[in-house]
Write a sequence for this structure.
């Protein structure tokens, strides 16, 4: 498999250097770590941080900036950052008002973040956590106890970051993060496997005439492997599963995300979004905002995920509040 | 360097040597039910830890334990980093006032508590907890109830941990990566329980060397090799 890399061992390090070089006014790396923070961190407000394995770009460092994250730790490809990296992240983003850690529900992320938080607390820091588990596909997986945290995480970053920017206290910032978690669902699918830099070949076999539904963001197994389907059929399957999980009332306002897994053209994502909006309309749901793009990828995997988040006045205000980050700008 | 500090450094070095010897064996265990990196991760992590503690100025047991934990946290990765490394850092504070039978028991108990909290695992889930619970409980009982000398207590504890590690073979994994295999995890020895046993054995060897123990531990005496609690949990 052809890859535009040098040495697989250096890929994360070189990627982070390249990201910072592209946004030197916004991002800086903490020396000797894979932690990236705002150039002006820590701010005099609640710090909002996240992190996880690499390979999901622009997640996570792409969401660092005004109105979203203060910093993020990058692990190796599909591996959690270590506890000392998370600890350095929390420390760098603690301006005295406390720190909210947004953690995706993967075993390694949760354990390393928990350890880091406990160590930071021993040093006097105040840290709260929101664990994101929006994937409606599987209850337990290769990497998790309970549901996986996937693309809905971006909305937690956005809402919590906006609340922190308002000058809210740590409990309030955590509350709005949890509010997103309580109201969001996601389900993904793959047309192809991804190829990790280290392995250099597909991590799982998917035939030319096969797709996998309910897949996670590492290409871990989903709920069902089936024959190829049209864009509309795929959209129907994913949307039905998400809506069944959320169980929304008619006229509920929602924000939707059609997220590309890294190897799918915008053309196809828009085709999916077209059908998604038709379905919501048929259900009597009211789309308040629709995002389409690569928000949380899985290297070069072809496929997409669909996220639906029920929004109330408070969440609408926070999700529409200004944000200025490398990967997401809201004006 | 204090005698206790010297012994602590020697213990870390001995663990590193043992895990280097067991690298392939642990990886073989992990490849059956996990992602085949436990041997390499542990050998690399403890080798770095040995290097780190050798460089400490005037080490004492607490700083050695803390530096070891810190190094494991950053070098081992995955779930083993926080489980082994983080727990060691938290437990190290129990040795702040020096190494005594009482502080050793507190150290072991805090370590166990942190591993259980973090991994959310109980006895019978096929994890390192299956070796750790009998190890710590036997050590505590041998010191506090039976009043045995520390090295004898540790020998009994290692014996209990060995049976605990063996106990992971016939059971089904309910926590950790292996749990995904469901019933297919039956028949496999848990890599984390096995490496925990190797660490404990290395500590015992160091303690025996140091004390030049003349009392052969009587391992046939009744020892609580069956965990006092937790067997029916989960």
């Amino acid at each position: 498999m052809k890859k535009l890399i040098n040495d697989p061992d250096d890929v994360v390090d070189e990627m982070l250097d390249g990201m910072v070089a592209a946004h030197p006014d916004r991002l800086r790396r903490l020396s000797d770590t894979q932690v990236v923070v705002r150039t002006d961190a820590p701010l005099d407000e609640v710090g909002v941080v996240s992190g996880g394995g690499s390979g999901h770009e622009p997640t996570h460092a792409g969401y660092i900036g005004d109105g979203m994250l203060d910093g993020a730790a990058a692990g190796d490809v599909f591996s959690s950052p270590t506890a000392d990296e998370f600890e350095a992240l929390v420390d760098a983003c603690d301006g005295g008002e406390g720190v909210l850690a947004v953690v995706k529900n993967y075993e390694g992320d949760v354990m390393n973040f928990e350890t880091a938080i406990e160590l930071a607390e021993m040093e006097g820091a105040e840290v709260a956590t929101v664990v994101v588990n929006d994937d409606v596909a599987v209850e337990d997986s290769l990497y998790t106890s309970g549901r996986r945290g996937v693309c809905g995480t971006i909305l937690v970053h956005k809402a919590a970051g906006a609340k922190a920017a308002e000058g809210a206290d740590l409990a309030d910032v955590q509350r709005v993060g949890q509010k997103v978690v309580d109201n969001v669902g996601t389900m993904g699918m793959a047309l192809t496997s991804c190829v990790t830099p280290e392995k250099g070949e597909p991590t799982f076999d998917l035939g030319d005439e096969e797709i996998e539904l309910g897949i996670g963001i590492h290409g871990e197994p989903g709920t069902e492997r089936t024959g190829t389907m049209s864009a509309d059929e795929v959209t129907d399957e994913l949307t039905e599963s998400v809506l069944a999980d959320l169980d929304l009332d008619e006229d509920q306002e929602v924000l939707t995300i059609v997220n590309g897994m890294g190897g799918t053209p915008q053309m196809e994502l828009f085709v999916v979004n077209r059908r998604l909006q038709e379905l919501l309309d048929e259900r009597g749901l009211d789309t308040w905002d629709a995002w389409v793009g690569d928000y949380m990828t899985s290297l070069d995997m072809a496929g997409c995920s669909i996220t639906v988040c029920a929004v109330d006045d408070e969440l609408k205000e926070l999700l529409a509040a200004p944000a200025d980050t490398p990967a997401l700008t809201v004006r | 360097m204090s005698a206790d500090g010297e012994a602590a450094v020697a213990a870390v070095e001995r663990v590193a040597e043992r895990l280097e010897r067991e690298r392939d064996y642990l990886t073989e265990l992990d490849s059956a039910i996990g992602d085949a990196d436990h041997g390499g991760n542990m050998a690399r992590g403890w080798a770095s830890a040995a290097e780190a503690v050798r460089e400490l100025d005037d080490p004492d047991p607490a700083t050695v334990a803390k530096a070891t934990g810190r190094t494991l946290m950053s070098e081992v990765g995955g779930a083993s980093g926080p489980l082994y490394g983080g727990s060691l850092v938290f437990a190290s504070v129990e040795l702040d006032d020096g190494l005594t039978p009482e502080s050793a028991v507190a150290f072991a108990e805090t370590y166990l508590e942190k591993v259980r909290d973090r991994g959310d695992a109980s006895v019978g889930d096929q994890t390192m907890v299956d070796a750790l619970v009998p190890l710590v409980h036997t050590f505590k009982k041998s010191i506090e109830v039976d009043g045995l000398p520390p090295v004898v207590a540790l020998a009994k504890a290692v014996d209990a941990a060995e049976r605990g590690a063996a106990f992971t073979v016939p059971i089904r994994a309910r926590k950790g990566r292996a749990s995904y295999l469901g019933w297919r995890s039956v028949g496999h020895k848990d890599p984390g329980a096995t490496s925990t046993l190797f660490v404990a054995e290395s500590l015992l060897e160091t303690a025996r060397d140091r004390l030049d123990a003349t009392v052969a531990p009587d391992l046939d005496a009744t020892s609580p090799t069956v965990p006092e609690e937790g067997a029916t949990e989960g």
